[in-house]
Amino acid sequence: MVTAYDEPGARYSDAAGVDILLVGDSMANVVMGDDDTLHVTMQDMLHHVRAVAAAKPKAHIVADMPWMSYHVDVASSVRNAAELVRAGAHSVKLEGGRVRRDVVRAILDAEIPVMGHLGLTPQSVLALGGFKVQAKTREAAEWLTKDATLLQDEGVYAIVIEGVPNLVGTRITEALEIPTIGIGAGPDTDGQVLVFHDLLGMTKRAPAKFVRRYADLGASITEAVSQYASDVRTGRFPDLSESYDNPEELTN
Ligand code: KIV
């Protein structure tokens, strides 16, 4: 799974053969330049889900439910999930375990598949006191495994496990029948997810420990744009092959 926020990103990742495109609220960090995901709204999500769906990918599209879109009451949560589906998502992802049980059940009752998200849940950054590795004690690890089992019993089809010691990623994966998708949860989860801009080297901050950069597109973009700017300044762009031919009437 890889994140996607727009049509070209979705098209390139789909051509690469990924299974799932996540329209993540991490767009806050990598597209909007925010420090957390708390300012992402339903409007923002709908806008980007539409753009990703426009790529008509073969991959499954899962859309993040943004903070406060499933925290007020069950009815508005179901309506928000349905809006994301109408914008082009095939399923929705939401953060949290037992506290979100009723909401998960109601969204599933509305025939919308749900992906869970446990561990370092970025929408809880204020309550967690920062972006910190979770489940570092036996008790916390057991609590998290129970949350994962509960979500599975409710009927979620997969769970993202984020920011936990790798043994916790392993144990939760072993405890579940549904797939786990890890990010900073070690090598033993069933799948992995990375943020598009992280794996391509397009982020302003130093990448987290769990990120592997597969390209340095940031440097390539700066190089290409500076070449363009220099060609414009020195009159090397455009040349006549990049200009429209003159009609005879103008040349006589
Ligand atoms: O928004 C996002 O990119 C995510 C991933 C980190 C799993 O939720």
Keywords:
252 residues, TIM Barrel, 11 helices, elongated, binds 3-methyl-2-oxobutanoic acid
Descriptive report:
- It is built from 11 helices and 8 strands.
- The chain has 252 residues and is α/β, with parallel strands linked by helices.
- It folds into 2 domains: 2-217, TIM Barrel; 222-251, no CATH class.
- It has an 8-stranded parallel beta sheet.
- Strand 6 (158-162), helix 8 (166-175) and strand 7 (180-183) form a beta-alpha-beta unit.
- The protein is elongated and about 85 Å long.
- The relative contact order is 0.11.
- Residues 3, 22, 24-26, 64, 117, 160, 162, 183, 193, 195 line the site of 3-methyl-2-oxobutanoic acid.
Any idea what the shape is? elongated
Q: What is the level-2 CATH architecture name of the largest domain?
A: Alpha-Beta Barrel
Strand order of the largest sheet: 1-2-3-4-5-6-7-8
In CATH, the topology of the largest domain is named TIM Barrel
Helix/strand structural class: alpha/beta
Mean model confidence by pLDDT: 97
- Main sheet makeup: 8 strands, parallel
Ligands bound, unique: 3-methyl-2-oxobutanoic acid
Short description, anyone?
This protein is of the alpha/beta class and 252 residues long. It has eleven helices and eight strands. An eight-stranded parallel β-sheet has the order 1-2-3-4-5-6-7-8.
Helices, strands, pairings?
Elements lengths: L1 E2 L3 H9 L4 E4 L3 H4 L11 H12 L6 E5 L9 H14 L3 E5 L5 H9 L4 E6 L5 H4 L9 H17 L3 E5 L3 H10 L4 E4 L7 E2 L3 H4 L17 H17 L14 H4 L1
Parallel strand pairs: 1-2, 2-3, 3-4, 4-5, 5-6, 6-7, 7-8
The chain binds 3-methyl-2-oxobutanoic acid (KIV).
